[in-house]
Each structure stands twice: as structure tokens, then as C-alpha cells.
Write a structure and sequence with these properties.
The complex is a heterodimer.
Chain A: E1 5-16, E2 19-31, E3 36-41, H1 47-54, E4 62-67, E5 70-71, H2 77-87, E6 88-91, H3 103-112, H4 120-133, H5 149-161, E7 167-171, H6 179-194, E8 198-202, H7 206-209, E9 214-219, E10 222-228, H8 235-252
Parallel strand pairs in A: 3-8, 3-9, 6-7, 7-8
Antiparallel strand pairs in A: 1-2, 1-4, 4-5, 9-10
Helix pairs in contact in A: 3-4, 3-5, 4-5, 5-6, 6-8
Chain B: H1 3-15, H2 18-55, E1 60-65, E2 69-70, E3 73-74, H3 85-94, E4 98-113, E5 116-125, H4 129-132, E6 137-140, H5 145-149, E7 154-157, H6 159-166, E8 175-178, E9 181-189, E10 204-208, H7 209-217, E11 224-229, H8 235-249, E12 260-264, H9 265-308, H10 310-318, H11 323-360, H12 368-394, H13 398-403
Parallel strand pairs in B: 5-10, 7-9
Antiparallel strand pairs in B: 1-11, 1-12, 2-3, 4-5, 4-8, 4-11, 6-9, 7-10, 8-9
Helix pairs in contact in B: 1-11, 2-9, 2-11, 2-12, 3-8, 9-11, 9-12, 11-12
The chains are: A alpha/beta, B alpha+beta.
Chain lengths: 253, 405
């Protein structure tokens, strides 16, 4: 099988005024299908630039990026948009749901831009299926402001899943959530990963990265460490443990 | 992207901020409404003028006597009495392509019938006059050439005069006394309505010009001639021939001014319709300015909307919207604004011009073209003023847009 992500000597340089900023310097990285990778690093380490490039929102200054075997450098912006639409699902830190729009319609959004087009009835059916996958089927008609943060992020995950992408890209998906909800969200990711979807996630929280299989640590535009997660956490067990602790606290008080 | 879904999306986006949407539309509503109402007033006035010109008769040439200038004051055309019986005979004899000629003498006289006593205009004319000027006889008959030749005391009576003197009774066969001379009414004229300057064309009595000159004015010259050409194509030739003939008869040397004036109906109608056209254009363009302002309002709001929704645009781009999808989305929002505004404006314009006709008696004329034009123009405004904001949205960089606070 070919890798989902293949970066070869990828560099990205920004020109800010007179100064050239080397955001990423000649990075090579391969991510195989079914992997669950955390990209970590301090701000300015180049991890956001990596994510933007992996997400086909940006193109490399030099080097090659193959997404599922497609060389991104040769594509124009419309082709990039189509590629994002069909192969990548995005999950953001701030959820980025459309306000005053029902969960179901939020999830349908990527399908509106699918080529060839998808009929309204099919769009709705697929959105409902995606919503069921994140366990929110009964909230289809709710608007984002009627949902909790965790529920909103689940809707956002459903939106990322609805077009059956090869790759799920999550940018600090638990950044706006409390620790318990974060674990729930990581549980969803782990479950999706078990079903075969490749997930790449940017995070700066070490304990969140421990739910992944592999961590890539960046500093100053270079990968400084790329290793498997040794003592991997399982979200279901962690939640059970939390519940027990919680009960213990209640018993003692 | 699917068009229906885009339109739904646009409508939802607009409904999200109802008050703002309504206020933005108001600009277009008022603009379109004003254009429709103003143009309908202008067209109404134009139609009225055209109807009045038509009531003058068809292919009519007016020949007016020259004016007397006394102590620096011009007394107006017709006052000099330069048109004579001989001129009349010559016109009848020597001008080709003429359907009829009639001289006119005018008198304001006291008219009495039974116990009624009024002042009215008495026009002395030839037997051709009613045909030339498109009068029709409602009852009775026109007076004849013989009546003219013999200066018989016969009269045709206008509707208003008839009603004043006889009420609803048929005036034919009645005796009226004009300046105490008894005339017999031989025919009643069908009503014609108001003339261009608001005077009542039906307040009139027509008598043979011979009778009028002999018994009422005592003059020997005519105020004017009305002449009818056989076809519109002949009008200008006839006009030239008349001028040549009269200059020759009046012995006017080259380079000297005419002592008469020849006007064709075409010239009169051109002047009048030009005036009303200027009015329509003026009213329409004032209203058009408000339409333009409405369009700028749309652009303004769309720009605000694009800025406010930068993150939404970023998200759409991230999940696979092409630049053109975003462009279309915002363009459709702008067009929806302007079209809904435009349709409401059309209704408002039609309503207010109806109201003007009903309450103030203004003649208004709403042409289907002006409605279609208003509709198209408001769509064009949407496209024109929506394009720049939409393009701005479409050209956003997805990364910057997603990061926008």
C-alpha cells in the first residue's frame, strides 16, 4: 500500500518584509494508512505549517508532497479544493461550526462542494450516518449554541467524516475542551482509527498525544524526534478509571 | 455546487440578520419604487399630450397670420390679419396634396338661448373644418358649402356649450342668439375633452366663417388657416409650397421675414412630446440616483458580511469549496437582496402611482417595459454591486481566513 502522506525534503519559506522565515526546513515524513500520529512542538516549531501543507491548504516552497499518491505541487487551487473535499476531513480547535445552522446541515457542508454533486436526500442520509458514528444521532436538529463543547466537536468530527476521507486532520482538537471531554473525543478518534481511518493530529498536550500511536516532535522547522508511543492510553479505560476516581471522591466526602 | 442549495444558503444567511437585510433592501425598494412611479407619471403626461395632439386632427398644417408689433410688444401670431380671402382661394387652388382647407376667425361673444346666457368662443370656419380637426358630429349634420357661401346663420355646438344652454336635451334645431343674431343649431359635436393647456375644447360654437365675419367680427382677414395634407409624407412638401405661395402673394422679398407662420402637426407634436420626454427623463434619472444609492448600500452590507464571515469562508474553502463556489454564494446573496428589493419596489411603485391617479387625478401609465426594466436593473445592480465583495470573499486565503478573529 502506498503511504497516505509522503513528504520528501519539504521546505516552506515565508517572506515577511525583508526577512525570509524558514518555517519548515527540508523535512521528510511518511505516514502509512491506518496510522494515528500526533505532531507536537512549541509555537513556531513549524507544526502548523506542516498541517497546512498536509491539509492541502498550502503548497511546499520546495520538495515534494504526495497525498495518497497525488503530487500536490502540480495542482491548481481548484484541484486542491477538490482534493481536500474528497480525501481530507478537518477538525479544528474552535470547532468552526456555522452558527444558527443545525448539526445536520453543518455536517452536510462538505457534500455541497462534492463533484459530481450529491442529491439532497443522499446528503441528508450520509450526514445522519456520520452523526450516528459520533453518537449524536438524536441531536441532528440542534443548533451549535444548543450543544456543549464536546458535542460541538463531535459534530465537527462527523462533518470531517461525511465525505469518507482517507485522512482526518485534527488541529488541537481538544484545545478548547475540559480534560474529561478531551478523553471522550480521543476515544472517538481511537475508535475511528480502529475502523481504519488515518489520523494526523497537532497537539501540544503530552497526555493527549499518548492516545496516538506515534509522535512526531518538531523544533525550529525540523523533526527532532519521531517515535512510537510506548505506553499508549486507551480512552475507554481512562474514562472508566476517571469514573472510579470520581466515585471514590464522592464516597470519601 | 448545487444551485438550489446555494440559494437556500443565501436566503438563510440573509434571514440570520433580518433587520439589516430589510434596511439594505429598503434602498432598492425605494429606488425601484421611485423609478416606476416617476416614469409612470412621465409616461402618463406624455400619453396625455399625444392624445391631445391627435385630437388636433391628422396631418394638419396650421397657417397663422403674422404678428403686430406695437411699441415693442409683440401681439402674438394671428393678430396682424395678413391672411385674406384671396390667400384662402389660392391655397385651395394651387397647393397639391391637400385634403381640405378651412379659414378661422375667432370671436368671443354673448350667446343666449331661452333664459340661458353665456359667453363662449365662436369660431368661424369652412365646411372642411370639422374633418380637418377630427371633430365628429354626435347628432344633426355639418353645415354645407352653400351655407358658407350664403353666410347662413347656422351653427355647430360643442358638448359643454350645449349642456350649459340646453342641459341634456338635443340642441339640434334650437335657436341660439349670438350677439343677438339668431343662429339655428344644425349639429352637435361629439366631446373631445381638455386641450393641451387645460382649456375645454368642447366649450365652442362653430359657424360658417362668412357668417362670423359678416355678423360677429366685421373683419375681412383671417386669424389662421387649418389645412389637411392627404398623407403624412406630403406634410413637409405642402408646408414648403404654402410658404412659397404666401411669400409670393404677400410680395416678401428674399431675406425678409415671413408675415405668417406655417406649423405642421408633426412639429407641434415633436415639441410637446420632447417636453414631456425631458420630464420623464428628469424624473426617471432622479429616481435612478436613489437606485444607485441603494446599490451602494448592498455593496456596503455585503462587504461587512464578507468580513464578518471570514472564518465561515475559511471553513468552506477548507472543506473543499472552490473560489467560484464562494463567489457564487455571495453573488447570489447580493442578487437575492436586490431582486426581492426590486420586486417589492415594483409593487410599491405600481401601488403609489395608482394612489396618485386615484387621489390627485394624475394620469399615470405603467408600461410593462418599465416593470421588466426595473426587474432586470435590480438584478444587474445585485450582480454589479455584489461582485466586488463576492470576489473579495472568493480570493481569501483559507489559512488566513480560518485564523481570522
Amino acid at each position: 500500500m502506498q503511504p497516505v502522506i509522503e513528504l520528501e525534503n519539504f521546505s516552506k519559506t515565508y517572506q515577511t518584509g525583508e526577512v525570509e522565515v524558514h518555517a519548515v526546513r527540508s523535512v521528510s515524513l511518511k505516514i502509512e494508512p491506518g496510522e494515528f500520529v500526533a505532531i507536537m512542538g512549541a509555537s513556531g516549531s513549524g507544526k502548523s505549517t506542516m498541517m497546512n501543507t498536509i491539509g492541502c491548504l498550502d503548497r511546499p516552497t520546495s520538495g515534494r508532497y504526495l497525498l495518497d499518491g497525488v503530487d500536490v505541487r502540480e495542482l491548481d487551487s481548484d484541484e486542491l479544493a477538490d482534493l481536500r473535499n474528497s480525501k481530507i476531513g478537518f477538525v479544528f480547535q474552535g470547532f468552526n461550526l456555522l452558527s444558527r445552522t443545525s448539526a445536520l446541515e453543518n455536517i452536510e457542508l462538505p457534500l455541497l462542494y462534492a463533484r459530481p454533486g450529491i442529491r439532497a436526500a443522499d446528503r441528508e442520509e450520509r450526514a445522519l450516518q456520520a452523526l450516528a458514528k459520533v453518537g449524536l444521532a438524536e441531536r441532528a436538529d440542534h443548533n451549535p449554541n444548543q450543544l456543549s463543547g464536546g458535542q460541538q466537536q463531535r459534530v465537527a468530527i462527523a462533518r470531517a467524516l461525511v465525505s469518507n476521507p482517507k485522512l482526518l486532520l485534527a488541529d488541537e482538537p481538544t484545545g478548547n475542551l475540559d480534560s474529561r471531554t478531551s478523553i471522550e473525543i480521543m476515544g472517538i478518534f481511537q475508535e475511528l482509527n480502529r475502523q481504519g481511518i488515518t489520523i494526523v493530529m497537532v497537539t501540544h498536550e503530552l497526555d493527549i498525544a499518548r492516545y496516538c500511536q506515534r509522535t512526531v516532535i518538531m523544533r525550529d522547522g525540523r523533526i527532532v524526534k519521531d517515535e512510537p508511543v510506548i505506553s499508549r492510553l486507551d480512552a475507554t479505560e481512562e474514562l472508566k478509571r476517571l469514573d472510579l476516581e470520581h466515585q471514590a471522591v464522592q464516597l470519601t466526602s | 455546487m448545487i444551485l438550489v442549495a446555494t440559494i437556500k444558503m443565501a436566503v438563510r444567511a440573509l434571514r440570520r440578520n433580518t433587520l439589516r437585510t430589510l434596511l439594505t433592501m429598503l434602498g432598492i425598494i425605494i429606488g425601484v419604487g421611485a423609478v416606476i412611479a416617476m416614469v409612470s407619471i412621465g409616461n402618463g403626461a406624455k400619453a396625455q399630450v399625444e392624445a391631445q395632439i391627435a385630437s388636433l386632427g391628422r396631418n394638419v398644417v396650421l397657417i397663422l397670420s403674422g404678428n403686430v408689433t406695437r411699441g415693442g410688444f409683440s401681439m402674438g401670431f394671428g393678430s396682424a390679419g395678413t391672411l385674406s380671402q384671396e390667400d384662402y382661394d389660392a391655397l385651395r387652388r394651387d397647393i397639391a396634396g391637400v385634403a381640405g382647407v378651412s379659414p378661422e376667425v375667432r370671436a368671443f361673444a354673448q350667446i343666449a338661448a331661452g333664459s340661458q346666457n353665456i359667453n363662449s368662443q365662436v369660431l368661424g370656419v369652412g365646411a372642411d373644418y370639422i374633418d380637418i380637426r377630427s371633430w365628429t358630429i354626435a347628432s344633426g349634420a355639418n353645415f354645407t358649402e352653400t351655407d358658407v357661401r350664403n353666410a347662413n346663420k347656422v351653427a355647430l355646438i360643442g358638448k359643454t356649450t350645449s349642456t350649459t344652454l340646453f342641459g341634456d336635451a338635443d340642441p339640434v334645431g334650437q335657436i341660439i342668439r349670438i350677439k343677438s343674431a339668431p343662429f339655428i343649431v344644425v349639429g352637435a359635436l361629439a366631446p373631445k375633452g381638455m386641450a393641451m393647456f387645460g382649456n375645454d375644447q368642447d366649450d365652442i360654437i362653430l359657424v360658417p366663417y362668412t357668417s362670423a365675419m359678416k355678423r360677429l367680427t366685421g373683419g375681412t382677414t383671417f386669424r389662421s388657416f387649418s389645412l389637411q395634407a392627404m398623407s403624412p409624407d406630403l406634410l413637409s412638401d405642402v408646408q414648403t409650397n404654402i410658404i412659397d405661395l404666401l411669400r409670393q402673394r404677400h410680395r416678401i422679398g428674399p431675406g425678409r421675414d415671413d408675415d405668417f407662420l406655417v406649423r405642421t402637426q408633426q412639429e407641434i407634436s415633436d415639441t410637446a412630446t420632447a417636453t414631456s420626454r425631458v420630464m420623464t427623463v428628469l424624473l426617471g434619472s432622479i429616481a435612478g440616483v436613489s437606485l444607485l444609492v441603494g446599490g451602494i448600500g448592498i455593496m456596503n452590507i455585503m462587504l461587512v458580511s464578507v468580513t464578518e464571515r471570514t472564518r465561515e469562508i475559511g471553513l468552506r474553502l477548507a472543506v473543499g469549496a472552490r473560489g467560484n463556489d464562494i463567489l457564487l454564494q455571495f453573488l447570489i446573496e447580493a442578487i437575492t437582496l436586490s431582486l426581492v428589493g426590486g420586486i417589492t419596489g415594483i409593487l410599491l411603485g405600481v401601488g403609489s402611482s395608482r394612489l396618485l391617479s386615484a387621489n390627485f387625478g394624475w394620469v399615470t401609465l405603467i408600461s410593462p417595459e418599465s416593470i421588466v426594466t426595473a426587474f432586470v436593473v435590480s438584478a444587474v445592480i445585485g450582480v454589479f454591486f455584489g461582485f466586488y465583495p463576492a470576489r473579495k470573499a472568493a480570493r481569501l486565503d483559507p489559512i488566513d481566513a480560518l485564523r481570522y478573529e
